[in-house]
Amino acid sequence: MQNCEPTLRERRRERTWKAIHEAAVALVKKNGLKQTTTDEIAERAGISSRTFFNYFATKEDAVLGLREPQITPAMIQADQARQQSYVFDRVVHLLLGVVVESIPATEHRRYRELGKKYPEFRTRFKVYLLKCERVVEDFLRTIDWQDFAANNRRGPFRFLEEGAEVNQEYWGKARASVTIASAILRYMDFSQGLPEGEARDQVVRESVDLFRDLLRED
Fold this sequence. Notes:
The chain is mainly alpha-helical and about 220 residues long. The chain has helices at about 10-30, 40-45, 50-55, 60-65, 75-80, 85-100, 110-115, 120-140, 145-150, 170-190, 195-215. The chain contains 11 helices and no strands. Helix 6 crosses helix 11, helix 8 packs across helix 10 and helix 10 (about 170-190) packs across helix 11 (about 195-215). The radius of gyration is 20 Å and the shape is globular. The termini are far apart. It holds the Pfam family TetR_N.
C-alpha cells in the first residue's frame, strides 16, 4: 500500500508556508498593506527574504495565502467518474477543482473584504485565476483530441505520446475549452461559495446545459 503521509520535507515546507502567510496577515492588519514589506514579513516568519519568494510571488499573495495551482491525482481520479459526461462538464470540474484547491472556499469572504479595502488584492486574485486557467489548458494540451473525438468525446482522456507533434488545432481546442469553462464559473459566481458533493455537481450540470443551449441557438 502506498504511503500517503507527508514527508518530513513536505511538513517543513507546509510549516514555512503557514508562518509566512500568518506573518503577512498580522503585519498588514497592524500596519496596512503599503507600509508592509516582504522583508518585514520574512523577518517575522523567521526566514530569509530570498526564501519568501520561494513560496509567494508578492506580499499580496502571501496575505491571501494563494497556493501554486496544480491538477492533483485526486482531481484526475474524480474525473474518472465523469468519463461519460459531456466534455465541458468535465473541464469545468477540473478548473473548479484547481481553483478550490488553490483558493480555499472558506477564505472567499475574507478575500472579498480585502478586495474592497485594497484594490491590489482584486488584481492579484484575477492574475491568480488566470494561472489556474493556464494549468488546466496545459493539461488539456497533452490530450489526444483526435482519439477522444473518435470515441464520441467520452471515456478516459488519452494522452499524446511523449515527443508527439502537437496539432495546432488541438491547442486551440484546449484554449477554447478553458475559456468556456472559465465563463461558466463566472456565471456560477463560485466566489460567493458553492455547495459540496452532489449539490455542486448539479449546479455545474445546470450551468453547462444553459451554455450548451445558448451555443445551439441561431
